[in-house]
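This section describes the prediction task in plain terms. A model, or a person checking by hand, is given the sequence of a single protein chain and must write out its three-dimensional structure as a string of tokens. No templates, partner chains or ligands are provided. The sample shown here is typical of the held-out split.
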Amino acid sequence: MAPSRPVRSGLLRAASPGVVLLVLLALCGLAGCSRDEASRASAAGPEAEFETLELRYQGNNGTVSPIELAEDLGYLAPIRLNFIGSTVSGPQSVQAVVTGDTDFGGAFNGAIIKLIAAKAPIIAVAGYYGVDEQRQSGFYVLNDSPLRAARDLLDRSISMNTLGAHSEFMVKELLSRNQITLEEARRITLLVVPPVNGEQLLREKQVDVASLGDIYRDRALERGGVRALFSDYELYGKFTAGSYVMKTSFIKDNPKTVRRFVEATAKAIEWARSTPRETVVERFIALMKKRGRNEEDAAIRFWRSYGVAGKGGLIAERDFQIWLDWMVKGGELEPGEIALSRLYTNEFNPYANEQAVK
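The expected answer:
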């Protein structure tokens, strides 16, 4: 019997669903498949391209992350996000990925290194927040505070959202640059405080210094009465500070879904970068109202930038190397213990071919 001719895809697109089903039944008759299988094949649309159509995650109330913006802009479709609850820190977010409670999370790059060093089977796939002229995290005191220099921090308290992450690394870097020994540094008390409460505790003098990031910092400065001791931008300049991570096994099993996730994140970051700030903020507020989490939009009105250095969230070597070097210097890691290739990948980013990331 002569081989059957292939069906032209253009004809299938132009045909009615009934004709498509008849054609598929005829083809399936040759292959031995059932009517149900043919029906499913005829119903398959763009969704059939992806291994999974739902990504579970933890978010932060009062903010809109790049992937949440991406879904709202339609860049993630047909994949949908499934919000399973809030998180107060990056390490907690990544731990949920490790345990399989979520499909992706986000954290400070230094915290990601620590988790991978502890054998967490994860890898960073895209930067999602950073530091630039507009988006900085600073350490603030009241105007009448006697604290002026790094050594003044000894025997004082500093609030931050979590330990072992971005804010703690900034404090350690400041102390190191000012020749303060590890023994002296132990005299400083680091207190875990939700970001939304940092300003209040500072004004009530329950802490001596408060770590205030971007929108919380801008809101505090507008109210007045506080001044900065130092900021992450002063220490390191512009850099991508945190990344989205996924389990390596999830990436292996769902490469097309992961590629869409990273592509959507990249496009959302660039949309926010190129769109007037007022338009971006309006979009954020509308999204927050639409998702119905009973959130306050007061802080998001101060949004300035995601601060991501690399185009579309591209991760540069420096984004991880500076923290690797710090951990080696502090004795937390051995030289060469973890290769950069184990920490992040730009494989799925559509901008990876446009520039070499150094």
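For orientation: DSSP finds 15 helices and ten strands in the chain.
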